[in-house]
């Protein structure tokens, strides 16, 4: 088909949450004939553009890739979006101003979309561009890998309180959402460690054997993989606790993800760190009263032998030394003691159970 340099081409745009699509068509004898179609997967910040700005970005993308057609012909942008108003408004953001300047060299006409026609092809291209995991980012592919228990954790520190959020997902897709609030101060790094430890404890209680954990804290992930040197004593204790807890699982993978892919857990952690009451739905809000690495004090049990050992052996088991003189001595001393609930008391001590026993003169050993 011959191309007339004076002919007007039409451009149809389509966008979704993750992709852009554009189709350039020409009218010939009342029929529309596609010339080119292009598509692009949006990355990171591009996905957070407002929907109208995504259409403007799609127009810029089409003008860059089909520059020859845009320079030599008039292009009608067929859309139901107010693109001309968006690109010319004085309060536009910096990127929109840059797009407007870039598009200023072309002869563009903005016409309303009155029928579907080639728009159906543009929509179809958007749908096909994002099909399967091959178009996902490596981070998204890692998150969407099926067959394993998945744990998403995040911590939050505010001037009021500290809190963490947990989302625990089974291989079948069942989720447990939990927000935990701390009644004591923590640093930002400590809340990230607390979130991971509490999440691992939850996974262990549900008998998960193969766990894939995700955190947006680079410090925690790099400490776990030993890529970062640990200098702070506090983080060393936390990391040791994480290493010991990981032994409860057959496999444990800890990966870092961006905040945009961890937004749900981030919201849970902010719920826990603020004074929010009356929560509804399947979110469990609990309080933590102690640090995960807090050491519990306990008395050391002395199991050696002392002067009481032969007396206890005689009172409990009737065992006496082979030496007759030593045996008489143990019997004499044992008359001043008794065993109550596994503990040895002098008979002169006031004890409720000793009141029923016959007391004798208090003889010092």
What's the helix and strand layout?
Blueprint: E1 8-15, E2 19-28, E3 31-41, H1 51-65, H2 67-72, E4 74-79, H3 83-88, H4 94-103, E5 108-112, H5 119-129, H6 138-143, E6 149-157, E7 162-169, E8 175-182, H7 188-205, E9 210-215, H8 218-224, H9 233-246, E10 251-256, H10 263-273, E11 283-288, H11 308-317, H12 324-334, E12 337-340, E13 343-346
Parallel strand pairs: 1-4, 4-5, 6-9, 8-11, 9-10
Antiparallel strand pairs: 1-2, 2-3, 6-7, 7-8, 12-13
What would your notes on this structure say?
This protein is an alpha/beta fold and 365 residues long. It folds into three domains: 8-135, Nucleotidyltransferase, domain 5; 138-288, Nucleotidyltransferase, domain 5; 308-356, no CATH class. 34% of the residues lie in helices and 25% in strands. It is built from twelve helices and 13 strands. The chain has helices spanning 51-65, 67-72, 83-88, 94-103, 119-129, 138-143, 188-205, 218-224, 233-246, 263-273, 308-317, 324-334; strands at residues 8-15, 19-28, 31-41, 74-79, 108-112, 149-157, 162-169, 175-182, 210-215, 251-256, 283-288, 337-340, 343-346. A six-stranded mixed beta sheet has the order 10-9-6-7-8-11. A five-stranded mixed beta sheet has the order 3-2-1-4-5. Strands 12-13 form a two-stranded antiparallel ribbon. A hairpin with a 5-residue loop joins strand 7 and strand 8 (175-182). Helix 1 (51-65) packs parallel to helix 4, helix 7 runs parallel beside helix 9 (233-246) and helix 11 packs across helix 12. It starts with 7 loop residues before the first strand and ends in a 19-residue tail after the last strand.
């Amino acid at each position: 088909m011959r191309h007339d340099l004076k002919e007007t081409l039409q451009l149809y745009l389509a966008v979704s949450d993750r992709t852009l699509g554009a189709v350039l068509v020409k009218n010939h004898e009342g029929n529309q004939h596609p010339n080119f179609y292009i598509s692009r997967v949006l990355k990171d910040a591009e996905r957070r553009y407002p929907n109208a700005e995504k259409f403007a970005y799609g127009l810029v993308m089409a003008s860059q890739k089909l520059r020859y057609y845009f320079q030599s012909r008039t292009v009608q942008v067929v859309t139901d979006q107010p693109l001309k108003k968006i690109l010319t408004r004085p309060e536009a953001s910096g990127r929109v101003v840059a797009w407007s300047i870039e598009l200023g060299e072309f002869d563009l006409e903005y016409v309303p979309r009155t029928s579907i026609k080639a728009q159906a092809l543009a929509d179809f291209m958007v749908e096909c561009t994002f099909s399967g995991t091959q178009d996902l980012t490596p981070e998204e592919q890692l998150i969407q890998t099926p067959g394993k228990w998945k744990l998403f954790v995040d911590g939050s520190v505010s001037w009021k309180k500290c809190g963490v959020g947990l989302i625990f997902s089974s291989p079948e897709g069942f989720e447990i959402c939990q927000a935990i609030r701390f009644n004591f101060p923590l640093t930002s790094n400590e809340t990230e460690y607390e979130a991971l430890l509490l999440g691992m404890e939850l996974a262990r209680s549900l008998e998960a054997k193969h766990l894939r954990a995700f955190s947006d804290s680079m410090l925690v992930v790099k400490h776990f993989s030993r890529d970062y040197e640990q200098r702070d004593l506090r983080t060393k204790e936390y990391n040791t606790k994480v290493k010991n807890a990981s032994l409860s699982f057959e496999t444990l993978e800890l990966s870092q993800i961006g905040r945009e892919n961890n937004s749900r857990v981030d919201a849970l952690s902010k719920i826990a760190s603020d004074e929010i009451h009356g929560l509804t739905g399947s979110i469990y809000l609990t309080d933590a009263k102690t640090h995960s690495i807090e050491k519990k004090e306990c008395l050391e049990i002395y199991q050696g032998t002392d002067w009481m050992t032969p007396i206890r052996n005689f009172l409990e088991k009737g065992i006496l030394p082979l030496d007759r003189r030593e045996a008489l001595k143990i019997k004499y001393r044992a008359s001043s003691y008794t065993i109550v609930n596994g503990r040895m008391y002098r008979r002169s001590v006031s004890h409720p159970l000793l009141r029923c026993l016959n007391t004798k003169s208090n003889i010092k050993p």
